Amino acid sequence: MNNNTRSGGVTDSFGSTTTSSAVALPGINDFAEGFVSYQTRAVNVLETADNHPDSALANIYAGMLWMFLERPEAPEKSIPYALRAERAGGLNDRERGMLALLQAWQRYDHQQVLAIGTQLCSEYPRDLPLLKVVQYHAFNAGNAALMLRLALAAEPHNAHLAAMHSMVAFGHEQSHHIGEAELAAHRALAIDPHEPWAHHALAHVHLGRGTSREGLALLSASSPSWEGLNSFMFTHNWWHVALFEIARGELDTALQIHDERCWGVQPDYSQDQIGAVSLLARLELAAVDVGDRWQQLLPFLETRQGDVIQPFLSLQYLYGLARAGSPLTEELLNLVRAQAEMPVVAQDRELWRDVAIPAAEGMVAHARGEHDRAAQELASVRHELWRIGGSHAQRDLFEQVLLDARLRAGDWRAARKTLEHRRQWEPDSPILQQRLQEVYQHLNG
């Protein structure tokens, strides 16, 4: 860590100059390092910002941390920190850019966030926390090409850092460059075998290749290093383990992972909630009786009845509410429908109208056993769902729900086509083989 004064300030762990005082630097570095490596110490910047209102960067980072809450009230929590950063005065060019990015984020002006972030990344290629923030927004916009382009541009400046190569790896994987993703992830692990985002990228690689045994072995060996990470990284990597177990037909093990590793770590957090919804849904699609687990999620999902900030998240909250039989399902569904005319985020009107609303209707229909309608709605947007963000693995939930709806509606030809396609990357799945056998029996009977 370099704390030397330079250009009227000090430098953080990634070599970026800040106008903040040296006494605020430990909290700034806790966020910068912790955010990139998924460590819980990132939250220490909140105390630093409160104790140092004259530290623009600490307050900018604190404002960003609140935006990662991914709830409608996030801007309300975040804006005071942006105002405090403005009042601090004397910001350098990088800090002014970061503040502008934060303010655009608070307005949910996604296009402006990406425009500002892309420019800042080109000017400050060693700033990995900034790159991580911009990749997050590009990911939510379904823009894998930008995720990868920004990471590749930064890679020559940060080749000594494992986190850099894992960001490249995930950008490659989301761009369907499986071989390149694998190589980049292993470059990260050669530097730091415990790099969790590299483990995550390799989970996607093995899922895409259908090599579930290899993926499970790698993640199982790596899992002890996830202890103590933030709830997203801990639960999400275990979520990937559960997917491999489902692919192998080890359904009891997958259900145990849900109970012990995926749900209950930070149940009020968006990513923990959608991970649990997605995993329970996949288990039910594999004919597992999940008991009262939907009801266990319900108190937390019912706080989302007014949450239409990110379509990708809202679709999963909605499905969980519907599966739990909550009366708030209709309230959230009506709010989703309203986004076609008066969206909370103006830029997302067409996204809701053309993609998210039909998907929402389909997911609720499936949860209620209306399989013909579910198949019709989900099929109509099947090839556009990338626009709502999320990873290939996460969006596969909608594909699996569509397949189940077709099977239950007796659309055997469409189901056969989907199953044969899935067999290319789930060659060893006993569940898939059983479904194919049933479909061919109907078609040949």
Give a verbal description of the structure:
With 445 residues, this protein is mainly α. It contains 23 helices and three strands. Strands 1-2-3 form a three-stranded antiparallel beta sheet, with no helix packed on it. The longest helix is centred in the last third of the chain and has 19 residues. The N and C termini lie far apart (70 Å).
- Low-pLDDT stretches: 1-7
The gyration radius over C-alpha positions equals 22 Å
The helix/strand series, from N terminus to C terminus, equals EEEHHHHHHHHHHHHHHHHHHHHHHH
Strand composition percent: under 5%
Shape: globular
Helix content bin: 55-70%
The DSSP helix count reads 23
Helix-strand makeup class: mainly alpha
Largest sheet, spatial ordering of strands: 1-2-3
List keywords for this structure.
445 residues, mainly alpha, three-stranded antiparallel beta sheet, 68% helix, disordered N terminus
Write the layout of secondary structure elements.
Elements (H helix, E strand, L loop, with lengths): L4 E2 L2 E3 L5 E2 L6 H13 L6 H8 L4 H12 L6 H15 L4 H14 L3 H14 L4 H13 L3 H11 L7 H13 L3 H14 L4 H14 L2 H11 L8 H17 L3 H12 L7 H16 L7 H9 L9 H13 L4 H11 L10 H19 L3 H11 L10 H18 L2 H11 L7 H15 L1
Antiparallel strand pairs: 1-2, 2-3
Helix pairs in contact: 1-2, 2-3, 3-4, 3-5, 4-5, 5-6, 6-7, 7-8, 8-9, 9-10, 9-11, 10-11, 11-12, 11-13, 12-13, 13-14, 13-15, 14-15, 15-16, 15-17, 15-21, 16-17, 17-18, 17-19, 18-19, 19-20, 19-21, 20-21, 21-22, 22-23
